[in-house]
Structures are given as structure tokens and as C-alpha cells.
Amino acid sequence: MFEAPESEYLVPFDGSFDVAKSSTTALTDGHLHKGKHRRKTVKELNTLQRILMAGDRRAVLLVFQAMDAAGKDSTIRSVMQGVDPSGCQVFSFKKPSSHELDHDFLWRTTTRLPERGRIGIFNRSQYEEVLVVRVHPEILTYQRLPGEINLETIWEDRMRSIRQQEEHLARNGTVILKFWLNVSKEEQKRRFLARLDKPTKNWKFDAGDVKERRHWDKYMSAYEAALNATSRSWAPWYAIPADDKSYMQARVAEIIVSALKNIGLQYPVVTDADRVSFAEARAELEADD
After folding, report:
1. In whole numbers, what is the pLDDT of the chain averaged over residues?
2. CB atoms < 10 A from the CB of 173, how many?
């Protein structure tokens, strides 16, 4: 089964992760900031994605979670630039529709899992159900759940379901990498103000995001619980510092490339029968005038 690439930002598998000790600024410096290094990493990812697609044996699922303005969209754009669009799919999960609420909480993300040979990206995900909903448990009222809702057990029950699904996917060939883009409250404030100050960024501003900021401590507590409960070697979380976007994007790209290099991707092996077929096709093409 897939094993998580090492990184100073890898969330431990033993439940010892502490949000308060998790840095929002770079722990290392130097070449990671240089555009040349980032372009090289993205080029490697492009090559690996082509081999992934040709081999058609593995799927890759990248999950991005973060507070608002942490840089999920820009990171996805930066890391996936140059990757063949036909081998990549991005889904953004907002407020569930009435149709989605007619199913269990994992249904809407399950229906969008990547096929073998493709990279699937979740911009927010099933983890919203143990993050946003945990901060605002009144949302559960609209989910039409059977029986009485026990707020003492529902979150662990949901995280157990997530763990079990991720382990099932990993056993069947899906490489899962999950990134929490860890932005500081101060940097989030600066980015919100920038959205207000620059006309070209006004469209990105949502007053509701500022209201959610009031619940910062509750969100941090929810993230800590979720990451500790679901970071496993087959579906690791990485708490990436997000105050410096260039650094954050470089580290995300580096981890993805490392993971793909470690799973033994290769182009399909040409068999003797294939070679005979190729030779016949060549002869026919060369004889065709």
C-alpha cells in the first residue's frame, strides 16, 4: 500500500498533532522560493502525470482544506499548470444541494473520485462535515439524519467512516494526499483587506468569510481533531505553512512529485505479441502509397 512521503510538515499518525505548534511560516528557506526550482518540479509532475495516465493502474486524489483566503485556488492553479487537462479533474464543494442531502455525507465526494490514470482534486471535501458542521452543529438539523443526533459521538463516527473509506481506496490503488494550508489569522486579515482595496479582487470578497473568522478558535480545534483522527500512512495530511504563497505552492508540488516517484509508475510493457502487431502495422503503413 502507498506510504506517505517524508516531510517536516507531515501530520503524525499517532494523534500528537498540535495546531498551536504548527507553523504558518516557512521552516526552511532557499531554493524552494526560486521560480526555476518550482518550474522544474511542475515539469516533473507533468511527466509523471502522463505515465500515470498511460499505465491506467492508479488514481491520485489531492484534497485541499483551509481557512478562507489561505490560497487553495492559487495553489491548485500553480501546481497543476502544464498538466494535461484530460488527465486531471477539479471539484469544488460548496453548500450541499437538496439532492446531495438525500444521501449520506460521503456520497457527493464519492461520486467524484478520480478514475484510474487520472488526478482528482478536491477543493474542500468530505472533511467539511467535521469542520464547518462541527463549528456550526445547527447545520445537522437540515441533514435529515435518522434517530437522535449525539454531538458527543457524531464527529468520531464520521471520521471513522472517512478513515475506512480512505483505507479502502488506498488498498485499491488510489494515492491520497491531503493538504491543510495553514494560514495565520493576521495574514488572512491582510488578504481580506487586499480584496477590499483592489477593484480587481473585489469579486473574491465575501462578507460571510469575515463572519466565519469570528469562530477561528473553534475551527482550529476542529482541524486539530480531524487531522489527528485521519492522518494515516496511506492517506496522510500535510500542514503546509500558507503565509508565503510561493513557498506553500513549492512544498505542495514537491510532496506530490515525491509521492508519484515512490509508487513505481511506468509506461505499459510492450509484449512480444504487441511487437508482432507493431511490425505488421509498420509494414502496411510503409507499403501504403
Report:
1. 93
2. 14
Q: Where are the domains of the chain?
A: 19-287
- The x, y and z cell numbers of residue 284, run together, are 502496411
Are 238 and 10 within 8 A, CB to CB?
yes
Query: Does residue 3 have a pLDDT over 80?
Result: no
36 CB-near residues (< 8 Å, 6+ apart)? none
Rounded Cα gap, residues 70 and 68, in angstroms: 6
Contacting residues for 228 by C-beta, under 8 A, at least 6 apart? 11, 15, 16, 17
pLDDT in tens, 40-92: 888 899 999 999 999 999 999 999 999 999 999 999 999 998 888 999 999 99
Beta bridge partners of 174: 59
C-alpha distances out from residue 81 to 19, 26, 43, 74, Å: 30, 23, 9, 11
Q: Cell match 514537491: residue?
A: 254
277 contact partners, CB below 8 Å, separation of at least 6? none
One DSSP character per residue, 185-242 reads: HHHHHHHHHHHHH-GGGGGG--HHHHHHHTTHHHHHHHHHHHHHHH-BTTB-EEEEE-
CATH of domain 19-287: 3.40.50.300
Length of the chain equals 289
Residues 6+ apart with CB under 8 A from 70: 181, 182, 183, 188, 242
Query: Is residue 134 within 8 Å of 162, Cβ to Cβ?
Result: no
What is the DSSP code (8-state) at residue 235? B
Rounded distance between C-alpha atoms, residue 163 and residue 36, angstroms: 37
